[in-house]
Amino acid sequence: MSILAVGSVALDTVKAPGGSVDEGLGGSATYFSLAASLFAPVAVVAVVGDDFPEEAFQIFVERGVDCAGLERRAGRTFRWCGRYEDDVNVAITEKTELGVFDEFRPVVPESCRDHPYVALGNIDPLLQLAVLEQLNGPKFVAVDTMNYWIDRQRDDLAEVIARADVLVVNDAEAKMLGGEANLLAAMTRLLELGPRYVLAKKGEHGAVLMARDFEFVLPAFPLREVADPTGAGDSFAGGFLGYLAASDDTSPANLCRAVAYGATVASFAVEGLGISRLAKLTRDEVEERLERLGDMTRF
Amino acid sequence: MSILAVGSVALDTVKAPGGSVDEGLGGSATYFSLAASLFAPVAVVAVVGDDFPEEAFQIFVERGVDCAGLERRAGRTFRWCGRYEDDVNVAITEKTELGVFDEFRPVVPESCRDHPYVALGNIDPLLQLAVLEQLNGPKFVAVDTMNYWIDRQRDDLAEVIARADVLVVNDAEAKMLGGEANLLAAMTRLLELGPRYVLAKKGEHGAVLMARDFEFVLPAFPLREVADPTGAGDSFAGGFLGYLAASDDTSPANLCRAVAYGATVASFAVEGLGISRLAKLTRDEVEERLERLGDMTRF
User: Fold this and answer.
1) What is the ipTM score, two decimals?
2) pTM of this prediction?
């Protein structure tokens, strides 16, 4: 089944542990789409400026991502500059230039409104709601967010979350939004907002999936080196939703398996600078590492 | 098979998230012994002062721990005062009073020198070596240590580690001793010191077991509340070595299973203040939670 992904497409300048990236293709919708398209057809809804390089556009095309909803506007593409220090789990933002992203009003093309799987990346919750209004009853909606919106638009965000099947956040966001220092306690609170599942990504420490009646915990695939953590969370979400959409099975057992796919795809994504590793990743490589992760966690 | 445990027996005063403990029974050998004795016979080698309360002594007796090597000396028992703040993974030491522990020269009773499984808690590496000299060729030796000895006696410590079957450390200690910021890279370095296995405990994030030819990763059992993290690492080591000794099977697959036992016992230990939960824990409770942990991690 096909996936609709809404979020940011950006040009990232990053000082990462494994080297530097200068205006490389980035953004939440980019990492998500490149990951999810390993499994299922993906259509992206995002905005770029008239400075967006043709080569970057080709990266989507090569992976068969439907770019009908990738709007090109007069102005500059969203740019993010950041770096990582000792704790590779924490990105330090040096500069954010919103450019045309500041006026992003997502329009879902007619041809994409029936896509059953939907990923709402971390944009303004009101825009996330506006996207949902344009859709014809999606089967499974994943919602991401970030501290910025938790601080500023908690009520709007709660409305989006109530309409989500799964809330996908990192552990710090889960604790902040749930108002609890303990991750599991925070996730329990988040379930009260209405989503069927909460998926908390813990970076190098793995992930937790929670529903009212079960919990699934998974360590990350152990890596000896991380070249660039940028986009790990979005790659995780892409692998997760991509596998779900491909199998079109939203049973609890299959969601757990989808989490393992997410973790596996993310483990590859951070091995290269920017999108470099993700862009050349194959489904076979994912399957092989997923099997190893299964072996490594079985007792 | 039986276990010999060497380490500290202390009186702990702790401000923990779940309340306070005032001079409660603590110390690495205490938590280790109470955990390991759920599985196999344990003999403890440690020292206490003449102020050591009879009730505390009875806690060992009730669990069938052999106290022939628990020396009572004139003077004060080792006391530790600490607290936890926002990060429950980090104990903040307020005061350490070594008392008789300062002159601890472990003597292994004749009756305990053939115990095949040995746990050397985090004491001076020279004392750890002195214990090994007193033993009649143990089958499996687990060595713990801490930042204090890594800083001050790295060479002595390296000698102990070379003679260990498994080095059991927390993630911060592994990185410090291995000289790498990445845990897996640090553990790879630690294997070069000679032990067959390195087991890194990551607190609420689980554990990693590494040998030259395999890795095993396990998340912690998810808890909504942690009353007192004190002794979690020693309880982990006790559950790990206790299960190994009981099954007397040091194959890689059984070591992975032993890690799961360690994680499970530790998850109970932190649910009560001090040793309270651990002291009343039953093997049946461990088995039931271990099975749940298996279900929660399978995909």
Assistant:
1) 0.91
2) 0.94
